């Protein structure tokens, strides 16, 4: 099945995330803490926690830090309580945006998110206004020099849902959230280390932007991602590679 060209977007976004590693660690800790609180401290029986730990290890967080976050979430150590919330709205050219937050102060977070949307040309919508456009999926990304036949065979044997070939020759192995870690570990064991992997909210329809529109949207996304309480920002934008260089 053919897909859009997403490799440039993935690479640029990963570079921006790497530059904010300290902030990423805070996000990892919050996700691990909430996952442990909701489903228990055993990753083997708590898929959300297993995914959060896998993500943190992939971001080079130490096992000691991860274990401490798990203990906090499980109530073994004193900690603040984080509440989850999702904001939905629109950016440039009607791009759909979802913002996932974890916060100990919902009023502060709501104000900050609304301010970012307003300042950078977006509009907040009601709950459910764009959420129906997105589906949670696991994605393992491989560059254009990967062996498509070998990747496809290994992915299907590992239990992946699909393999998408993008216009630029890159490949995406698609999984469910629940099977993501198992498929990833099986692919790595078979010698197919992904260049990038994540559980993401994939939109059913995309909005293609020009460079100017892409630059404007990226300012809004950056402002949202820079907020301390924001965990993830999702959109259905197809942003030109040149927009990232500005």
Describe the 3D structure.
- With 246 residues, the protein is an alpha+beta fold.
- It is 43% helix and 23% strand.
- The chain has 8 helices and 11 strands.
- The protein has helices at residues 7-19, 21-39, 47-58, 63-73, 106-119, 148-158, 180-189, 211-225; strands at residues 2-3, 83-90, 96-103, 123-124, 134-142, 162-166, 171-175, 196-203, 207-208, 230-235, 237-238.
- Strand 2 (83-90) and strand 3 (96-103) form a beta hairpin.
- The chain is flat, with a radius of gyration of 18 Å.
- The model is unreliable at 1-5 (pLDDT under 50).
CATH superfamily of the domain at 14-73, called what? Integrase, N-terminal zinc-binding domain
Please give the alpha-carbon distance between the first and last residues. 33 Å
Q: According to CATH, what is the topology of the domain at 14-73?
A: Arc Repressor Mutant, subunit A
Structural class of the helices, strands and pairings? alpha+beta
Binned strand content: 15-25%
Q: Largest sheet, order of strands side by side? A: 1-6-7-5-8
Number of strands: 11
Top-tier CATH class of the domain at 14-73: Mainly Alpha
Enumerate the spans where pLDDT stays under 50 for 5 or more consecutive residues: 1-5
Q: Give me the number of helical elements.
A: 8
């Amino acid at each position: 099945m053919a897909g859009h060209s997403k490799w440039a977007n993935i690479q640029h976004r990963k570079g921006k995330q790497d530059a904010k590693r300290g902030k990423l660690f805070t996000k990892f800790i919050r996700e691990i803490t909430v996952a442990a609180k909701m489903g228990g401290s055993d990753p083997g029986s708590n898929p959300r926690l297993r995914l959060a730990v896998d993500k943190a290890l992939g971001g080079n967080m130490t096992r000691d830090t991860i274990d401490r976050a798990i203990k906090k979430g499980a109530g073994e150590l004193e900690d603040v309580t984080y509440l989850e919330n999702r904001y939905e709205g629109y950016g440039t050219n009607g791009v759909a945006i979802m913002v996932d937050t974890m916060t100990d102060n919902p009023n502060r977070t709501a104000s900050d998110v609304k301010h970012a949307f307003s300042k950078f040309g977006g509009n907040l919508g009601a709950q459910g206004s764009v959420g129906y456009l997105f589906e949670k999926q696991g994605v393992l990304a491989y560059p254009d020099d990967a062996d498509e036949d070998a990747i496809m065979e290994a992915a299907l044997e590992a239990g992946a849902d699909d393999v998408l070939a993008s216009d630029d020759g890159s490949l995406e192995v698609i999984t469910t959230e629940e099977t993501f870690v198992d498929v990833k570990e099986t692919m790595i064991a078979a010698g197919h280390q992904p260049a990038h992997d994540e559980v993401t909210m994939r939109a059913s329809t995309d909005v293609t932007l020009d460079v100017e529109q892409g630059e404007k949207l990226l300012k809004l996304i950056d402002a949202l991602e820079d907020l301390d309480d924001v965990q993830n920002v999702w959109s259905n934008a197809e942003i030109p590679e040149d927009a990232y260089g500005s």
